[in-house]
Design a protein that fits this description.
Blueprint (H helix, E strand, L loop, with lengths): L1 E2 L2 E13 L7 E6 L21 E4 H9 L6 E5 L7 H13 L3 E5 L4 H7 L6 H7 L2 E4 L20 E4 H7 L8
Length: 173
């Protein structure tokens, strides 16, 4: 979403010191709206597309600048790919500051690649993402022993290598 040339996303909240949404200390942006509605979802309050708080790219960049301990930024949900183009614009600014980006999605990498269009911005968001945690949350495959994932079916994808090799390449973290 854009207003007066300012990128705006609808959020369910921001966490400026997460240690569970990827390696290191992270700013996690929880976007509002999710079509997946996975049974047992950890963030069911993010499902509704008709609510949330608008946050500008400038506000996110100010939060990043205010925390010298940050290692990176995580886009979580809700479903980030429902706001892919706007997050990609924010992601460009984050990358310019030298931070890495992790994006969580209920889609698989293959679904994103086959469904990518210029209008939906999937490729733009993938291009600024370092690691992608993909796949729906499956409650029966949940375990507290799975690092940075909710269920065992989800993969941690090295996006740069995957785009270069034209196939999903899992990351070793």
């Amino acid at each position: 979403m854009e207003q007066n040339n300012e990128v705006i996303i609808m959020t369910a909240g921001l966490k400026n010191d997460s240690i569970v949404d990827g390696p290191g200390i992270r700013l996690t942006v929880f976007v509002q709206g999710c079509p997946h509605r996975c049974k047992g979802c950890h963030n069911p309050q993010t499902h509704d597309f008709n609510c949330g708080t608008p946050v500008t790219a400038d506000e996110i960049m100010e939060l990043i600048s205010s925390n010298p301990l940050l290692d990176g930024v995580t886009f979580s949900g809700g479903e980030p790919f429902c706001q892919a183009a706007a997050l990609a614009e924010i992601g460009k600014r984050i990358r310019e500051k030298g931070y890495n980006i992790i994006t969580y999605t209920g889609y698989t990498y293959e679904q994103l690649m086959s469904g990518a269009t210029e209008e939906n911005g999937y490729m733009k968001l993938l291009s600024v993402t370092d690691l992608l945690v993909d796949g729906p949350y499956i409650e029966s495959q949940s375990s507290p022993d799975i690092r940075f994932r909710g269920s065992a079916n989800q993969r941690i994808i090295d996006v740069k290598r995957s785009l270069a090799e034209n196939k999903a390449v899992t990351a070793d973290i």
